[in-house]
Amino acid sequence: MSVRYGLLALLAEEPTHGYQLKTAFERRTGGSWALNIGQVYTTLQRLERDGLVEVDLGGSPAGDGERADRTDYRITAAGREQLNTWFASAVVPEGPARDELTIKVLLAVAAGDVDVDGILQRQRTATLAQLQAYTRRKAQADPDRELAWLMLLDALIFKAEAEVRWLDACEARIRRHARRNREDGHDRTDRND
Amino acid sequence: MTAPTAMTDQRRPMAATPEGTRMDDAIRLEGASRSFGGGHTLVVALHPTDLVVAAGELVAVMGPSGSGKSTLLSLVGGLDRPTAGRVIVGGQDLGTLNAKGLAVLRRRTVGYVFQELNLLAGLTARENVTLPLELDGAKLGAARQAADAALAAVEMSHLADRFPDDLSGGEQQRVAIARSMVGGRRIVLADEPTGALDSMNGEMVMRLLRKHCDDGGAALLVTHDAAHAAWADRVVFLRDGRIVDVSVPAPSPEFSRHDPLTAALDAA
Protein backbone atom coordinates (compact mmCIF):
# COMPACT_ATOMS: atom_id res chain seq x y z
CA MET A 1 0.00 0.00 0.00
CA SER A 2 2.86 2.37 0.73
CA VAL A 3 3.95 2.81 -2.89
CA ARG A 4 0.42 3.68 -3.87
CA TYR A 5 0.06 6.36 -1.22
CA GLY A 6 3.61 7.53 -1.71
CA LEU A 7 2.88 8.31 -5.34
CA LEU A 8 -0.42 9.97 -4.44
CA ALA A 9 1.35 12.16 -1.86
CA LEU A 10 3.90 13.29 -4.43
CA LEU A 11 1.25 13.93 -7.08
CA ALA A 12 -0.75 15.97 -4.58
CA GLU A 13 2.06 18.52 -4.74
CA GLU A 14 2.32 18.78 -8.52
CA PRO A 15 1.68 16.77 -11.68
CA THR A 16 4.74 14.85 -12.77
CA HIS A 17 5.91 11.75 -14.63
CA GLY A 18 6.93 8.25 -13.58
CA TYR A 19 10.67 8.67 -13.45
CA GLN A 20 10.41 11.86 -11.46
CA LEU A 21 8.09 10.06 -9.02
CA LYS A 22 10.59 7.25 -8.61
CA THR A 23 13.48 9.55 -7.69
CA ALA A 24 11.38 11.82 -5.47
CA PHE A 25 9.96 8.81 -3.63
CA GLU A 26 13.42 7.41 -3.00
CA ARG A 27 14.61 10.75 -1.68
CA ARG A 28 11.61 11.20 0.59
CA THR A 29 11.95 7.78 2.17
CA GLY A 30 15.56 8.32 3.14
CA GLY A 31 17.15 6.74 0.09
CA SER A 32 16.82 3.29 1.59
CA TRP A 33 14.50 1.78 -0.92
CA ALA A 34 15.15 1.72 -4.65
CA LEU A 35 11.84 1.63 -6.48
CA ASN A 36 11.58 -0.40 -9.64
CA ILE A 37 10.43 1.91 -12.45
CA GLY A 38 8.13 -0.85 -13.73
CA GLN A 39 6.51 -0.92 -10.30
CA VAL A 40 5.91 2.82 -10.54
CA TYR A 41 4.17 2.50 -13.93
CA THR A 42 2.08 -0.46 -12.77
CA THR A 43 1.00 1.47 -9.69
CA LEU A 44 0.18 4.56 -11.78
CA GLN A 45 -1.96 2.43 -14.09
CA ARG A 46 -3.88 1.01 -11.14
CA LEU A 47 -4.35 4.45 -9.65
CA GLU A 48 -5.63 5.68 -13.03
CA ARG A 49 -7.98 2.70 -13.30
CA ASP A 50 -9.36 3.51 -9.84
CA GLY A 51 -9.87 7.15 -10.80
CA LEU A 52 -7.36 8.46 -8.25
CA VAL A 53 -4.98 9.95 -10.82
CA GLU A 54 -5.32 10.97 -14.46
CA VAL A 55 -3.04 11.79 -17.34
CA ASP A 56 -2.21 15.46 -17.29
CA LEU A 57 -2.78 16.54 -20.89
CA GLY A 58 -1.79 20.12 -20.19
CA GLY A 59 1.53 19.00 -18.84
CA SER A 60 4.88 20.37 -19.94
CA PRO A 61 6.14 19.00 -23.23
CA ALA A 62 8.83 16.35 -23.05
CA GLY A 63 12.28 17.80 -23.43
CA ASP A 64 14.22 14.95 -24.97
CA GLY A 65 12.11 12.33 -26.65
CA GLU A 66 10.71 9.12 -25.13
CA ARG A 67 7.31 10.68 -24.90
CA ALA A 68 5.71 7.61 -23.31
CA ASP A 69 8.04 7.74 -20.32
CA ARG A 70 7.36 11.39 -19.83
CA THR A 71 3.60 11.22 -19.46
CA ASP A 72 2.62 13.54 -16.63
CA TYR A 73 0.00 12.40 -14.15
CA ARG A 74 -2.04 14.50 -11.77
CA ILE A 75 -4.10 13.59 -8.71
CA THR A 76 -7.91 13.68 -8.93
CA ALA A 77 -10.31 14.91 -6.24
CA ALA A 78 -11.05 11.29 -5.32
CA GLY A 79 -7.31 10.64 -5.07
CA ARG A 80 -6.85 13.60 -2.76
CA GLU A 81 -9.68 12.39 -0.56
CA GLN A 82 -8.22 8.90 -0.29
CA LEU A 83 -4.77 10.29 0.48
CA ASN A 84 -6.16 12.48 3.26
CA THR A 85 -8.03 9.51 4.71
CA TRP A 86 -4.79 7.51 4.68
CA PHE A 87 -2.81 10.23 6.45
CA ALA A 88 -5.59 10.62 9.01
CA SER A 89 -5.90 6.90 9.81
CA ALA A 90 -3.74 5.00 12.28
CA VAL A 91 -1.83 2.10 10.81
CA VAL A 92 -3.24 -1.10 12.25
CA PRO A 93 -0.64 -3.80 12.91
CA GLU A 94 -1.07 -6.99 10.97
CA GLY A 95 -2.26 -10.13 12.70
CA PRO A 96 -0.14 -12.53 14.75
CA ALA A 97 3.59 -12.64 14.10
CA ARG A 98 4.40 -14.80 11.13
CA ASP A 99 7.97 -13.84 10.56
CA GLU A 100 10.57 -16.53 10.06
CA LEU A 101 12.47 -15.87 13.28
CA THR A 102 9.44 -16.14 15.54
CA ILE A 103 8.34 -19.37 13.89
CA LYS A 104 11.86 -20.80 13.96
CA VAL A 105 12.25 -20.20 17.70
CA LEU A 106 8.80 -21.58 18.53
CA LEU A 107 9.43 -24.71 16.49
CA ALA A 108 12.90 -25.15 17.99
CA VAL A 109 11.52 -24.97 21.53
CA ALA A 110 8.80 -27.50 20.69
CA ALA A 111 11.26 -29.86 19.00
CA GLY A 112 13.11 -30.41 22.26
CA ASP A 113 16.34 -31.65 20.70
CA VAL A 114 17.36 -28.37 19.03
CA ASP A 115 19.99 -26.05 20.54
CA VAL A 116 17.66 -23.14 21.32
CA ASP A 117 20.31 -21.20 23.27
CA GLY A 118 22.49 -21.37 20.19
CA ILE A 119 19.71 -20.13 17.92
CA LEU A 120 18.97 -17.23 20.26
CA GLN A 121 22.63 -16.22 20.59
CA ARG A 122 23.42 -16.46 16.88
CA GLN A 123 20.39 -14.31 16.13
CA ARG A 124 21.30 -11.85 18.87
CA THR A 125 24.80 -11.46 17.44
CA ALA A 126 23.47 -11.05 13.89
CA THR A 127 20.90 -8.47 14.95
CA LEU A 128 23.45 -6.55 17.01
CA ALA A 129 25.81 -6.53 14.01
CA GLN A 130 23.00 -4.99 11.94
CA LEU A 131 22.24 -2.55 14.74
CA GLN A 132 25.91 -1.55 14.84
CA ALA A 133 25.84 -0.91 11.08
CA TYR A 134 22.69 1.26 11.36
CA THR A 135 24.21 3.16 14.27
CA ARG A 136 27.35 3.92 12.27
CA ARG A 137 25.17 5.37 9.54
CA LYS A 138 23.30 7.40 12.13
CA ALA A 139 26.55 8.73 13.60
CA GLN A 140 27.58 9.93 10.14
CA ALA A 141 24.27 11.57 9.25
CA ASP A 142 23.74 15.31 9.39
CA PRO A 143 20.90 15.95 11.86
CA ASP A 144 20.00 19.27 10.22
CA ARG A 145 19.85 18.07 6.63
CA GLU A 146 18.90 14.41 6.70
CA LEU A 147 15.70 14.26 8.69
CA ALA A 148 13.99 11.53 6.65
CA TRP A 149 17.11 9.38 6.60
CA LEU A 150 17.57 9.69 10.37
CA MET A 151 13.92 8.88 11.04
CA LEU A 152 14.22 5.82 8.84
CA LEU A 153 17.37 4.73 10.70
CA ASP A 154 15.53 5.24 14.00
CA ALA A 155 12.76 2.94 12.73
CA LEU A 156 15.27 0.24 11.78
CA ILE A 157 17.16 0.65 15.04
CA PHE A 158 14.06 0.41 17.22
CA LYS A 159 12.87 -2.68 15.35
CA ALA A 160 16.24 -4.39 15.74
CA GLU A 161 16.33 -3.37 19.38
CA ALA A 162 12.89 -4.88 19.89
CA GLU A 163 14.10 -8.11 18.32
CA VAL A 164 17.03 -8.29 20.76
CA ARG A 165 14.68 -7.65 23.66
CA TRP A 166 12.43 -10.42 22.44
CA LEU A 167 15.40 -12.81 22.20
CA ASP A 168 16.42 -11.87 25.75
CA ALA A 169 12.86 -12.45 26.97
CA CYS A 170 12.75 -15.85 25.24
CA GLU A 171 15.98 -16.85 26.94
CA ALA A 172 14.76 -15.72 30.35
CA ARG A 173 11.48 -17.60 29.91
CA ILE A 174 13.17 -20.77 28.77
CA ARG A 175 15.61 -20.67 31.69
CA ARG A 176 12.85 -20.07 34.18
CA HIS A 177 10.83 -22.88 32.69
CA ALA A 178 13.81 -25.27 32.86
CA ARG A 179 14.48 -24.29 36.47
CA ARG A 180 10.90 -24.94 37.51
CA ASN A 181 10.94 -28.29 35.81
CA ARG A 182 14.14 -29.18 37.64
CA GLU A 183 12.71 -28.10 40.96
CA ASP A 184 9.53 -30.03 40.32
CA GLY A 185 11.59 -33.11 39.66
CA HIS A 186 13.76 -32.79 42.76
CA ASP A 187 11.50 -31.44 45.43
CA ARG A 188 7.87 -30.66 44.83
CA THR A 189 7.55 -28.66 48.03
CA ASP A 190 10.38 -26.28 47.21
CA ARG A 191 8.70 -23.97 44.75
CA ASN A 192 9.17 -20.44 45.84
CA ASP A 193 10.17 -18.45 42.74
CA MET B 1 29.25 -21.14 20.58
CA THR B 2 32.33 -19.21 19.70
CA ALA B 3 35.43 -19.55 21.82
CA PRO B 4 37.03 -16.44 23.29
CA THR B 5 39.40 -16.37 20.33
CA ALA B 6 36.47 -14.90 18.44
CA MET B 7 37.62 -11.66 20.02
CA THR B 8 39.98 -11.46 17.11
CA ASP B 9 38.37 -9.59 14.25
CA GLN B 10 39.83 -8.77 10.86
CA ARG B 11 40.90 -5.30 11.77
CA ARG B 12 42.90 -6.38 14.79
CA PRO B 13 44.22 -9.86 14.16
CA MET B 14 46.51 -9.66 17.19
CA ALA B 15 43.97 -8.23 19.56
CA ALA B 16 43.12 -11.41 21.45
CA THR B 17 46.40 -13.20 21.48
CA PRO B 18 47.60 -13.48 25.05
CA GLU B 19 51.33 -13.23 24.38
CA GLY B 20 52.97 -9.81 24.18
CA THR B 21 51.47 -6.50 25.14
CA ARG B 22 50.76 -4.09 22.33
CA MET B 23 51.55 -0.50 23.01
CA ASP B 24 48.09 0.61 22.02
CA ASP B 25 46.26 -1.85 24.26
CA ALA B 26 44.25 0.17 26.71
CA ILE B 27 42.74 -2.79 28.54
CA ARG B 28 43.90 -6.36 28.48
CA LEU B 29 42.59 -9.39 30.33
CA GLU B 30 44.70 -12.53 30.14
CA GLY B 31 42.90 -15.56 31.47
CA ALA B 32 41.40 -13.38 34.17
CA SER B 33 38.87 -15.19 36.33
CA ARG B 34 37.01 -14.52 39.54
CA SER B 35 35.42 -17.05 41.82
CA PHE B 36 34.03 -16.94 45.31
CA GLY B 37 34.03 -19.58 48.04
CA GLY B 38 35.38 -23.05 47.39
CA GLY B 39 34.59 -26.72 47.35
CA HIS B 40 30.85 -27.34 47.27
CA THR B 41 30.09 -23.64 47.55
CA LEU B 42 32.41 -22.51 44.75
CA VAL B 43 30.77 -19.85 42.62
CA VAL B 44 32.54 -18.85 39.44
CA ALA B 45 31.52 -15.31 38.56
CA LEU B 46 33.93 -15.11 35.65
CA HIS B 47 35.66 -18.05 33.97
CA PRO B 48 39.18 -17.44 32.59
CA THR B 49 38.67 -14.66 30.08
CA ASP B 50 40.81 -13.02 27.41
CA LEU B 51 39.75 -9.59 26.25
CA VAL B 52 41.56 -6.68 24.66
CA VAL B 53 40.33 -3.12 24.20
CA ALA B 54 42.76 -1.22 22.00
CA ALA B 55 43.21 2.53 21.94
CA GLY B 56 40.48 3.98 19.72
CA GLU B 57 38.05 1.21 20.53
CA LEU B 58 34.69 1.26 22.21
CA VAL B 59 33.75 -2.21 23.44
CA ALA B 60 30.36 -3.00 24.93
CA VAL B 61 29.59 -5.91 27.22
CA MET B 62 26.07 -7.30 27.28
CA GLY B 63 24.57 -10.09 29.32
CA PRO B 64 21.79 -10.84 31.77
CA SER B 65 22.30 -10.18 35.46
CA GLY B 66 24.61 -12.78 36.92
CA SER B 67 26.44 -13.23 33.62
CA GLY B 68 29.64 -11.72 35.01
CA LYS B 69 29.62 -8.31 33.39
CA SER B 70 29.83 -6.35 36.64
CA THR B 71 32.64 -8.65 37.82
CA LEU B 72 34.49 -7.98 34.58
CA LEU B 73 34.15 -4.22 34.98
CA SER B 74 35.21 -4.37 38.65
CA LEU B 75 38.36 -6.27 37.71
CA VAL B 76 39.26 -3.75 35.01
CA GLY B 77 38.57 -0.88 37.37
CA GLY B 78 40.80 -2.38 40.05
CA LEU B 79 37.86 -2.50 42.46
CA ASP B 80 38.28 -6.28 42.68
CA ARG B 81 41.18 -8.65 42.04
CA PRO B 82 41.15 -11.71 39.78
CA THR B 83 41.36 -15.16 41.34
CA ALA B 84 43.70 -16.09 38.50
CA GLY B 85 45.10 -14.45 35.39
CA ARG B 86 46.14 -10.89 34.74
CA VAL B 87 44.39 -7.57 34.23
CA ILE B 88 46.46 -4.91 32.48
CA VAL B 89 45.13 -1.38 32.24
CA GLY B 90 46.99 1.48 30.59
CA GLY B 91 50.02 -0.80 30.32
CA GLN B 92 50.08 -1.55 34.04
CA ASP B 93 49.47 -4.99 35.50
CA LEU B 94 46.98 -4.27 38.26
CA GLY B 95 48.27 -7.26 40.20
CA THR B 96 51.54 -5.42 40.78
CA LEU B 97 49.89 -2.28 42.14
CA ASN B 98 49.13 -1.64 45.79
CA ALA B 99 46.14 0.42 46.94
CA LYS B 100 48.06 3.66 46.44
CA GLY B 101 49.13 2.61 42.96
CA LEU B 102 45.54 1.79 42.05
CA ALA B 103 44.40 5.17 43.34
CA VAL B 104 46.95 6.91 41.15
CA LEU B 105 45.81 4.85 38.15
CA ARG B 106 42.23 5.89 38.79
CA ARG B 107 43.14 9.55 39.06
CA ARG B 108 45.38 9.70 35.99
CA THR B 109 44.45 6.96 33.58
CA VAL B 110 40.97 5.58 34.15
CA GLY B 111 37.67 7.41 34.49
CA TYR B 112 34.30 6.03 35.57
CA VAL B 113 30.75 6.78 34.59
CA PHE B 114 27.93 5.06 36.43
CA GLN B 115 24.20 4.83 36.03
CA GLU B 116 23.54 6.58 39.31
CA LEU B 117 24.64 10.13 38.92
CA ASN B 118 27.30 10.62 41.52
CA LEU B 119 28.25 14.22 41.22
CA LEU B 120 28.84 15.94 44.54
CA ALA B 121 25.77 18.05 45.23
CA GLY B 122 27.68 20.79 47.07
CA LEU B 123 30.00 21.49 44.14
CA THR B 124 29.26 23.21 40.83
CA ALA B 125 29.67 21.32 37.55
CA ARG B 126 33.10 22.88 37.04
CA GLU B 127 34.20 22.05 40.60
CA ASN B 128 33.04 18.46 40.18
CA VAL B 129 35.12 18.11 37.04
CA THR B 130 38.12 19.83 38.63
CA LEU B 131 38.08 17.53 41.67
CA PRO B 132 40.04 14.51 40.29
CA LEU B 133 42.84 16.83 39.23
CA GLU B 134 42.93 18.62 42.56
CA LEU B 135 43.09 15.26 44.34
CA ASP B 136 46.02 14.44 42.11
CA GLY B 137 47.83 17.57 43.28
CA ALA B 138 47.37 19.72 40.18
CA LYS B 139 47.53 23.48 40.55
CA LEU B 140 44.09 25.03 40.72
CA GLY B 141 44.55 27.23 37.64
CA ALA B 142 45.69 24.35 35.47
CA ALA B 143 42.96 22.10 36.89
CA ARG B 144 40.27 24.67 36.09
CA GLN B 145 41.61 25.08 32.59
CA ALA B 146 41.49 21.32 32.01
CA ALA B 147 37.99 21.15 33.52
CA ASP B 148 36.76 23.89 31.20
CA ALA B 149 38.18 22.01 28.21
CA ALA B 150 36.44 18.81 29.34
CA LEU B 151 33.15 20.66 29.87
CA ALA B 152 33.46 22.25 26.43
CA ALA B 153 33.94 18.79 24.91
CA VAL B 154 30.55 17.71 26.28
CA GLU B 155 28.94 21.06 25.38
CA MET B 156 28.38 22.05 28.97
CA SER B 157 30.49 25.22 29.18
CA HIS B 158 27.44 27.43 29.53
CA LEU B 159 26.25 25.50 32.61
CA ALA B 160 29.63 25.12 34.31
CA ASP B 161 28.62 27.20 37.33
CA ARG B 162 25.40 25.33 38.02
CA PHE B 163 24.98 22.89 40.87
CA PRO B 164 23.91 19.32 40.00
CA ASP B 165 20.41 19.88 41.36
CA ASP B 166 19.90 22.62 38.79
CA LEU B 167 20.85 20.34 35.90
CA SER B 168 18.72 17.79 34.05
CA GLY B 169 19.64 14.11 34.23
CA GLY B 170 21.21 14.26 30.78
CA GLU B 171 23.22 17.36 31.68
CA GLN B 172 24.44 15.76 34.91
CA GLN B 173 25.58 12.71 33.00
CA ARG B 174 27.48 14.91 30.55
CA VAL B 175 29.26 16.50 33.52
CA ALA B 176 30.04 13.01 34.85
CA ILE B 177 31.53 12.11 31.46
CA ALA B 178 33.60 15.30 31.46
CA ARG B 179 34.85 14.36 34.91
CA SER B 180 35.74 10.83 33.76
CA MET B 181 37.87 12.18 30.92
CA VAL B 182 39.36 15.33 32.45
CA GLY B 183 43.11 15.79 32.43
CA GLY B 184 43.75 13.48 29.52
CA ARG B 185 42.50 10.23 31.05
CA ARG B 186 42.17 7.97 28.03
CA ILE B 187 40.32 4.96 29.42
CA VAL B 188 36.69 5.25 30.40
CA LEU B 189 34.78 2.51 32.20
CA ALA B 190 31.04 2.99 31.93
CA ASP B 191 28.49 0.96 33.89
CA GLU B 192 24.99 1.46 32.47
CA PRO B 193 25.71 5.17 31.86
CA THR B 194 22.47 5.61 29.94
CA GLY B 195 20.30 3.63 32.35
CA ALA B 196 18.58 6.60 33.95
CA LEU B 197 18.20 8.68 30.79
CA ASP B 198 15.57 9.05 28.08
CA SER B 199 16.49 7.90 24.59
CA MET B 200 17.74 11.25 23.26
CA ASN B 201 19.96 11.91 26.28
CA GLY B 202 21.13 8.31 26.20
CA GLU B 203 22.13 8.80 22.59
CA MET B 204 23.98 11.98 23.53
CA VAL B 205 26.01 10.04 26.11
CA MET B 206 26.83 7.37 23.53
CA ARG B 207 27.91 10.00 21.00
CA LEU B 208 30.30 11.44 23.59
CA LEU B 209 31.79 8.03 24.39
CA ARG B 210 32.07 7.28 20.67
CA LYS B 211 33.85 10.58 20.07
CA HIS B 212 36.21 9.96 22.96
CA CYS B 213 37.24 6.67 21.34
CA ASP B 214 37.39 8.09 17.81
CA ASP B 215 39.82 10.68 19.21
CA GLY B 216 42.12 7.90 20.41
CA GLY B 217 40.64 7.08 23.82
CA ALA B 218 39.21 3.74 24.80
CA ALA B 219 36.07 2.72 26.61
CA LEU B 220 34.56 -0.41 28.08
CA LEU B 221 30.83 -0.11 28.42
CA VAL B 222 28.48 -2.41 30.31
CA THR B 223 24.88 -2.05 29.18
CA HIS B 224 21.69 -4.03 28.78
CA ASP B 225 20.50 -1.67 26.06
CA ALA B 226 21.15 -3.05 22.57
CA ALA B 227 20.67 0.32 20.88
CA HIS B 228 23.42 1.83 23.03
CA ALA B 229 25.71 -1.19 22.79
CA ALA B 230 25.42 -0.75 19.02
CA TRP B 231 27.64 2.34 19.20
CA ALA B 232 30.53 0.00 20.01
CA ASP B 233 33.14 -1.42 17.66
CA ARG B 234 32.58 -4.80 19.28
CA VAL B 235 29.82 -6.14 21.46
CA VAL B 236 30.87 -8.94 23.78
CA PHE B 237 28.13 -11.28 24.99
CA LEU B 238 28.55 -12.85 28.41
CA ARG B 239 26.60 -15.84 29.66
CA ASP B 240 27.24 -17.61 32.96
CA GLY B 241 30.66 -16.03 33.33
CA ARG B 242 31.91 -16.77 29.83
CA ILE B 243 32.21 -14.81 26.59
CA VAL B 244 29.90 -16.71 24.25
CA ASP B 245 30.02 -14.46 21.20
CA VAL B 246 31.17 -11.12 19.82
CA SER B 247 29.49 -8.95 17.22
CA VAL B 248 31.09 -6.41 14.90
CA PRO B 249 29.16 -4.06 12.57
CA ALA B 250 27.53 -5.87 9.67
CA PRO B 251 29.62 -5.31 6.55
CA SER B 252 26.85 -4.26 4.14
CA PRO B 253 27.50 -0.59 3.42
CA GLU B 254 24.19 -0.27 1.62
CA PHE B 255 20.78 -1.43 2.66
CA SER B 256 19.70 -4.77 1.38
CA ARG B 257 16.25 -6.03 0.59
CA HIS B 258 16.42 -8.02 3.81
CA ASP B 259 16.14 -4.92 5.91
CA PRO B 260 12.81 -5.07 7.67
CA LEU B 261 11.52 -1.74 6.46
CA THR B 262 12.69 -2.24 2.88
CA ALA B 263 11.08 -5.66 2.83
CA ALA B 264 7.86 -4.28 4.28
CA LEU B 265 7.74 -1.54 1.69
CA ASP B 266 8.48 -3.92 -1.14
CA ALA B 267 5.76 -6.27 0.00
CA ALA B 268 3.23 -3.46 -0.02
**Number of separate strands of chain B:** 10
User: Which segments of chain A are poorly predicted (pLDDT under 50) over 5 or more consecutive residues?
Assistant: 188-193
Which structural class do the helices and strands of chain B define? alpha/beta
The N- to C-terminal Cα distance of chain A equals 48 Å
Q: What's the mean pLDDT score of chain A?
A: 85
Spatial strand arrangement across the major sheet of chain A:
1-3-2
Overall 3D form of chain B = globular
Please describe what this structure looks like.
- The complex is a heterodimer of chains A (193) and B (268).
- Chain A is mainly alpha-helical and 193 residues long.
- In chain A, 64% of the residues lie in helices and 5% in strands.
- In chain A, strands 1-3-2 form a three-stranded antiparallel β-sheet.
- In chain A, helix 1 packs across helix 2 and helix 2 packs across helix 3.
- In chain A, 22% of the residues are buried.
- Chain B has 268 residues and is of the alpha/beta class.
- Chain B is built from eight helices and ten strands.
- A six-stranded mixed β-sheet of chain B has the order 6-7-8-3-9-10, with helices on both faces. In chain B, strands 2-1-4-5 form a four-stranded antiparallel β-sheet, covered by helices on one side.
- In chain B, a hairpin with a 2-residue loop joins strand 4 and strand 5.
- At the A-B interface, helix 1, helix 6 and helix 7 of A face helix 7, strand 9, strand 10 and helix 8 of B.
Q: Concise description?
A:
The complex is a heterodimer of chains A (193) and B (268). Chain A has helices at residues 2-11, 18-28, 37-49, 77-88, 100-111, 116-140, 147-186, and strands spanning 16-17, 53-55, 72-75.
